[in-house]
Amino acid sequence: MSPIGRAVTSSRRRLRAARAAPTVRYASPAGVIAILITGAALSASAPAGAAQALPAPRPTQELAVLLTPHAVKATLRPGASRKTTLPAYAPVTGAQTVLPVIGHATRSGGIRWLRVMLPGRPNGSTGWITQRGTRPSTTSWRVAISTASRQVRVYRRGRLTRSFSAVVGKPATPTPNGRFFVEESILMPPGSAGAPYALALSARSNVLQEFEGGPGQIAMHGVANLGGTPGTAVSHGCVRLADANIRWLAARIAPGARVTITP
Catalytic residue at 236? Predict the structure, then answer.
């Protein structure tokens, strides 16, 4: 097994312990950078074109914090079957799963439903979950990434707060475009690849369908032990930032925050 593969195995073992202690927010398995491109998040279940129907970002984003595992439906039509089940806890850190809410509905029996953004493939998927078993929350932060200008722009309440130069995916392994969100905020071990922090995204590579045993998860993370000069396109699809900049982001951008990636 490669060093990256060992890191994935290590993180999954820690996940079992994290589920027993759900207040844990960060995990720091050796070499956890592997999760940034091989994370074990569930594949999305709604139609691939769902991203086109998402509303424009608002100054404050509604979130749903999962208290229990949730079955996901692609539609609320009578007889619609379950497509997948979302776990209550994130795969690496063991923190509670947090999803952006983009719609509401009430159906027979007064059951309230939430339309949420989903992690995994196909990118930009959405689905419906019951409101019961969730806790409402909000975030005023969102991130916009331009792969053409290689810039990361950070907004709070709709106002531009910071702008950073970044490393993006090289032509052979481009950073995917679309509307995503932060799945997990991960504190990296000192000296590990991608340290000091990683914000693992709901996005998946459109080129690396499988990489070192995982689904090719995209993240924003540091440049430690990876190299790359901000403003260049040399990564496998992840977005790399200078240490000071990823530290600033990690202190403010929590799971559930929207991340839009455009050309």
Answer: no
